[in-house]
Amino acid sequence: MRYYLSKIKADDDTWEIHTVNCRHLPNENDQRIYLGDFTHCIHALPVAKLYFRTLRFCPECSLLA
Ligand SMILES: [Zn+2]
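# zinc ion complex -> structure
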């Protein structure tokens, strides 16, 4: 599964990690960062931490993937 980081900050000052198919992931490439292709969302976390400090997995897509 391919994982992306949304560059749109959520209300609670976190940035969300999404799968490529998630409806919450911005469509525009300048509003998201490609993290990589991983077997589980947990592997996307170290990559996402290179960009932002406060992160969370999208409850709708990442935790199910
Ligand atoms: Zn999502």
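# post-check
The pocket of zinc ion is lined by residues 18, 22, 24-25, 58, 60-62 (CB under 6 Å).
The radius of gyration is 10 Å.
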